[in-house]
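Request from the bench team (R.T.):
"We need a structural guess for the complex before ordering more zinc ion. Sequence and SMILES attached. Just send the tokens back."

Command: build protein-zinc ion structure.
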Amino acid sequence: MGIMRTLQLLILLLPLAAAIQPSAQDPVPGQRFRHLKWGSINFLHTTDKLGINSHGWHAGHLQEPQYSADFGDYLSFTSHLRNIAEENGVDLIVLDTGDRAEGNGLWDATDPMGKYTRNFYRELPLDILTLGNHELYNGTTAQNEFLEMVSYYEGFSQISRKFVTERQGFRIISFGFLFNFTRNYKNTRVKTAADTIKESWFQEVIHDIDVDLFVIIGHVDIHSIEFTQIFEAIREVHPNIPIQFFGGHSHIRNFRILDNKSTALESGKYFETVGWLSIDGIKAREAPDNTDNTSMVVSRRYIDVNRAGYQHHLGKNATTFDTPQGLLMTERLAKYRAGLGLDRLIGCAPQDFSLSKHIYPGPQNWYSYLEEHILPVMVYNKERSQVPRFIFINTGSQRSDVFKGPFTYDSSFLISPFTSKFIYAKDIDYSIAIHLRDFFENDAGPYKSSDKSENPLENRQQDTAEVDIQSSPLVNHDQAPLTHSQPRHKYSRVIGYATIDDAGTDGDDTIHIPLKRYPTPNVIQGNASFPEDWESYPPAKIDIVFFDFIAWHVAAGLNEITGTKDYSTEDFLPYMRQEDTMTKLLLDYVAKYWGRDC
Ligand SMILES: [Zn+2]
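Reply to R.T.: structure attached below.
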């Protein structure tokens, strides 16, 4: 009877068998994989997804198909992994470490933002989750996170500090942390890790002696002081109990060994990566007396988010991979996307632009294009239009490369999702303003975004065989030209992460060719309404226009350059309307200047 019902469902869903979103590309076939190693307890980790990967990219591109699986595929993947765990009598814990908000049309284009996205998250079989800074910038987002997510998991959160795993009987104590974040909206409160670990409730919980494993998840870089402080606090009480950390926020694949019974995993960004970690040889409640923690073995993998890889790790193929629930989720995602018009064509990108694969400044660099073409035309105020201006935006406000061909409504959110407003400082001496850019470059600031999306660590790669896209044939849109140029190779090699971490160079599940990245500035500058010979005969005073996100640093810069305390964020005024976000300006520019013939 059960089988019949399943069959019926499958038949009904057959037209959806291509489960990734219709607009996504297929991953490169014939890739070379490293297997997942199972232990007695296993973890599947996602972080910094910033919306759901529902793939707005149409353009064929070497990298993007590698990350083309969607939430429905992930649901199928986790459900098969759960079955494998069950068959083998081991445990599987599924976790997410936050920044689910923003960065994708399905989140950003709804009112209120995230209206649909949270439902999809709630359907994932998550065992432990925490939130990130992106859930806390906006008051409404923070409130809805509280009302819809916290309440949904409430019964669960009461027990989540301590639970016993289903099969091996590990007694786990778990906590969720956020980095020492200070830009949260006023309806939320963030306590530092250093203060939290001193609180009596925390000390009470960690003094529990009936525990086999601590699982600490955090929206925190795994090398952060926060994790070190938590580690030391627990180690003081339990010198021998394994502590497993899962981190995020800095958008890298990374693995840290804290001591011989404690490691930390960070699993990339934007749902390009699913992290896998298994632990073997540690003591569970039910374990025989001779088992202790001395033979603990930890294994980690960074899984590229595509169906070929998922299927490989499960020993499944395209016909046996999808589950009815996974297919349904894929279908619903496609329906919501269609309802929001996310695949709507806005214009055609005339060429590829990249954030860091092409040299800055340069004709294929997206920041250069913004500086020279988009900012001067789009950032404009009627009353001040004649006043020369410098327009500053932080580079972290841009999230993704632009590919030649269709630019959709969704592309605008993928590339520039933030809702920062343009504000300005009026009539600043040119002789002062001209030094601002140097100030930004030498200032720590949050310029590469709150999430350090261009973090140099992200580009840690093995130096062998690094491909420079600027001087390589890979710049075309053919699939896997490297396969053709190296016919003796049994496997295709694709461009991607070549991670180096504390455990070595074998973490990536797919063997990649790393891509060369060029350095980018903290802040870029567009110039507008200057007379032709302005550099020789500069105007006495100009306007400084910038994102409110960096307002504090603009004031600090002006004060430092003038050696005064004359400037404060209070003096800055709105330059454009509230609704004129970079996302909207980008859409308007593309619609007006890029044509629709592609
Ligand atoms: Zn973050």
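Two things stood out. Residues 344-454+520-593 form a domain with the 5'-nucleotidase;  domain 2 fold (CATH 3.90.780.10). Residues 275 and 427 are 51 Å apart (CA to CA).
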